[in-house]
Amino acid sequence: MATTSHFSATSHCSSVSRFVDLGSRSGGKWRSNLLLIRTLRSRPLARSFSVKNVSSEPKTKLENPISGEDASSIASSIKYHAEFTPLFSPEKFELPKAFVATAQSVRDALIINWNATYECYDRLNLKQAYYLSMEFLQGRALLNAIGNLELTGAYAEALTKLGHDLESVARHEPDAALGNGGLGRLASCFLDSMATLNYPAWGYGLRYKYGLFKQRITKDGQEEVAEDWLEMGNPWEIVRNDISYPVKFYGKVVSGSDGKKHWIGGEDIMAVAYDLPIPGYKTKSTINLRLWSTKAPAEDLDLSAFNAGEHTKAYEALANAEKICYILYPGDNSLEGKSLRLKQQYTLCSASLQDITARFERRSGSNIKWEDFPEKVAVQMNDTHPTLCIPELMRILIDLKGLSWKEAWNITQRTTAYTNHTVLPEALEKWSLDLMQKLLPRHVEIIEMIDEELISTIVTENGREDSDLLEKKLKEMRILENVDLPSTFANLIAKPKESSAAAINENSDEAGKLINEKAEVDSGDETESKGEAKSTGARKKEEVVAEPPPKMVRMANLCVVGGHAVNGVAEIHSEIVRDEVFNSFYKLWPNKFQNKTNGVTPRRWIRFCNPDLSKIITEWTGSEEWVLNTEKLAELRKFADNEDFQTQWRAAKKSNKMKVASLLKEKTGYSVSPDAMFDIQVKRIHEYKRQLLNILGIVYRYKKMKEMSAVERKAKYVPRVCIFGGKAFATYVQAKRIVKFITDVGATVNHDPEIGDLLKVVFVPDYNVSVAELLIPASELSQHISTAGMEASGTSNMKFAMNGCILIGTLDGANVEIRQEVGEDNFFLFGAKAHEIAGLRTERAMGKFVPDPRFEEVKDFVRTGVFGSCNYDELLGSLEGNEGFGRADYFLVGKDFPSYVECQEKVDEAYQDQRRWTNMSIMNTAGSYKFSSDRTIHEYAKDIWNIEPIILS
C-alpha cells in the first residue's frame, strides 16, 4: 500500500517573541516530503494509476511549490487536477475546465502556506485581529494569487504548453459576488495588506449565493437578474464541515434555577464555515477569509408533509435557513425584508463570535482567563452592520461563560472597535425595537441594560440641574430612540402635557428628507421608491391624526458606546464625525475618536492590473520596491518633465485605452476612438454621488456642439469618451431613472453623425472589480463629484490617481487629501465646500436660490424630447422647488452646475497641451503614495488592534 509522510514546514513558528522573523521576506526553499503530490505530478496523466511506497527511494529535493516550481511541474499539476479533481467531463480541456484546474493547482500551493500560517497563530497564541464586514468585493483571484506568489510567468508558460494563454483562462473566473461597492472593496484591500504585512488577522463575512444582482442594460434602463457566480463551483473555497455553529432566532428568555438567563425555543439554524485563502505579496503569510453559509439540519425536512404532497410546507424550515445567505442586501420595504436583513447581520455576528471565542478557549488550553480575552482578540466592525457583535459577545460571556455583567462589559468594550462610513445622522442605521424584540429577545434585554448604563453616565457627566441640557443629551446619545426612560430615571425629565403632531413626527420627518447614504440602504421608504414628491401642505393633512414615532435601536450609538475606538475614513469625514455626528460622545470620550484615511492595495490596483505602467515605474525608480513601499512612487516627480519618460507614460496609457475600446465594443456595441480623452465615473448610482450632474454637463456640452459649425466645435472641444458604470439599488427608483437617462443620452449622442468621435457616452453594464481593473488604468479624467460633506472617503479616487488619472471633484472625502498630495494644479476643483452646504439648503428653503441660466437651459433641452420619448419630469422635478420631499435639489446639482461646467472647460484646455497633461498625470501617480492600504493597516494595527507582525519562512 502506498504511504505518504505527514507534511510539516521545517521552519515552524517556535520562537516565543512577539515579532517572529523566521527568514528573509522572499523566503528560501522549503524541503518537504510531499510524496503523493510529487509522485502524481512527475508521472504522465493516465485514466488509472497506482502510487507505490517510495519511502526507500533516494531522497530528492522537492522545491517549494510557492517559490520554486517551474513551468513543467506546474503544467503537470494542472493536468493532474483536470484529471483527478474534475468538475467537468474528461473529454475536453476547454477554457472553463482549464481555469478550474489552474485555480486548484494554485490552491495547492496556497494551502501549504495557509496551514503553516494557521498553525503558527495557534502555536504562538498571539493577539489576532478579526475584521467583520457584510461585504468583501474580492474580484477575480487567479492573477492576484499567482502574482503575489511570483509565479505569473511560470503559470503563463505552463498554460501555453497546455494550449491556452493565461489571460484567456483568467477571464473565465467569475467575480465573487460578495460585495457591492467601496465598503466591500475596502475590506478586500485590507485583507491583502494584512497578509502582505504579516499581521495575524482574519476576515469574516457571509457566503452569498447570488450576491447583489447582475445588471443588464436594456431599452428600459437597468434590469436585475440573479448573479450566477457559484453555478460552476468555487475552486478557491474549502468547506469546513467540522466548523459550524448554531444561530437562534425568535423564542423567549427565561430565568433558570442557576440564576442565569436562558434563551429558549424559536428557530434554530446552522452556520457552516467556508474558507478562502488570502495570500500576501512576497511572503508566505496566507490569511483566511471565513464566510458563513446557513442551513437547517436534515431532520427539519418534514417527511410526512412531503409524502402528503405538501412539498412547500415540508421544505419551509430548510428554505428559511438557506435564504439568509441568498442575497446581499435584500429589499427592505417589507417586514419580511427587514427581518431577513437583521437575520443576516446577526448570523454574521453570532457565528463569528462563537468561532472567535472557541479559538480563544482552544489556544488557552486548560488555563482559560476571560479577562485576557482583549489581549488576544481584536474585533473590528466595518460600518454598523456587525453592531450586534456587542450584545452577542455580552450574551456569550454572561449566559454561556458565567461572567458577571461588569466583567463582560469591560471585556466587550476593550475588544470591539467601530469604523464609521457615514456622515449623515439621518442615514445611520437603525432597527425597529419591536422587530428586534421579536427576533432577538435576549439581545434587546442586553441593549436595554447598556442604554441604562449610558443614561447613568450622561446624568453623572451633566448633572440634574439643567433639565433642558440633559434632555438634549439624552435625545442625541441614547441607544434606544423614542423609548421611555427606565424606571430608575423616570422622574428625571418632566413629560409635556401634550405633544403636537408636528413634534411627534419631528424625527421621522427629518429622517425622511434624505435618501439613505449607506451603500446597502438605497431603497428608502415607499414614497422614495416611487419617486413621489409631496408638498408640505399635503403632508400636514396626513399628520392630523399622528401616530407615536416608532421605537428604534440606534446601531451607531451602540457601536460608539460598546467599543474602545471609533474611526472615520478620511480627515474631513473624521472631523464631521467628531464635530457633528457624534459630538456629544466625543466630548464625553475624546480619546475614542481617531482618523484612519482609507487606502487601496498597490498590488491589485497598479502592479497586476496595469503591467505596462508598472514596468515603467520599476525601470525609472530602479526596482520593484514601490510595490511594498509606495513612498518610492514620489521619486517619479523628478522625471515628470523628462521627454522619454513622458513618451513611455503616454504609450502605456494608450495601450490600456485600446483594451477598454475593445471591452466597450464587446459589452455595448459602441465603437470609440482610443485617441479621445477617456472621462470616467464608475461607482454605485446614487443621488449624492451626482451622476446626474455629470450627465447634465454632457448634455450641455452636446447642446453647445449642435449649435456650432463642424469647424467651430472641432476647434473648441477635445474629443471625449464619457464612460459610466455602477449599479442602482433595485428599489431605488430615482437612481434607476438616472441610469435610464444616461443610456438615452448615449443612444442619441452616439448615433449623431454631426458629432462623430467628438463625444461618446457609454454605460458599461454590470460594473465590477474585473471591469474596474480595465477601466482604471485607461482613465485620463475621473469624476468624484459628490455633494461636499456627503462622501465619507472614497477609494476609487485613490485607484485612479495611482494609475495616473487626473481627478475632477469637490472637496469631499479623500479628495481633500489627494489634492494636497498631488498638488492643487493637478486636480480640477469645483463646487461648494462642506461647511457651506447647510446654509445653502436653508437659503433654498427661503426661496433665495437663483438658478444659473445654463442650468435652466439644460433642463429645457431635455424636456424637448431630444433623448427619446421617456418622460423625465420626475427626475428633473427633484431639482426644482424650494422645499418638499424629493424636490428642492437637496444634493445641490443646480448650485454646483455652473462651477462644474466652467471647470470642464479648464479640463479641455489642459488636455490640448499633452505635455502639460502628461506631467499632471505623472504627478498624480507620484502623489498617491500615501494612499496604500498598507499604511492604513499599519495604523489600525498600532492604534486600535495592538497587534504585531509575524513572518513565516
Main sheet makeup:
9 strands, mixed
Order of strands across the biggest sheet?
5-8-9-2-1-10-11-15-16
Structural class: alpha/beta
Count all strands and give the number: 22
> Which stretches of 5+ consecutive residues score pLDDT under 50?
1-12, 14-68, 498-542
Figure out the total of helices.
39
Question: How far is it from the N-terminal to the C-terminal residue, by CA?
Answer: 34 Å
Strand-residue proportion:
5-15%
Computed over alpha carbons, the radius of gyration is: 29 Å
Shape: globular
Q: How confident overall, as mean pLDDT?
A: 88
Helix content: 40-55%
Could you walk me through the main structural features you see in this protein, from its secondary elements to its overall organization?
This protein is α/β, with parallel strands linked by helices and 953 residues long. The chain is 45% helix and 12% strand. It has 39 helices and 22 strands. Strands 5-8-9-2-1-10-11-15-16 form a nine-stranded mixed β-sheet, sandwiched between helices. A six-stranded parallel β-sheet has the order 19-18-17-20-21-22, with helices on both faces. Helix 15 (433-439) crosses helix 16 (441-462), helix 27 crosses helix 31 (769-778) and helix 28 (691-706) crosses helix 37 (893-912).
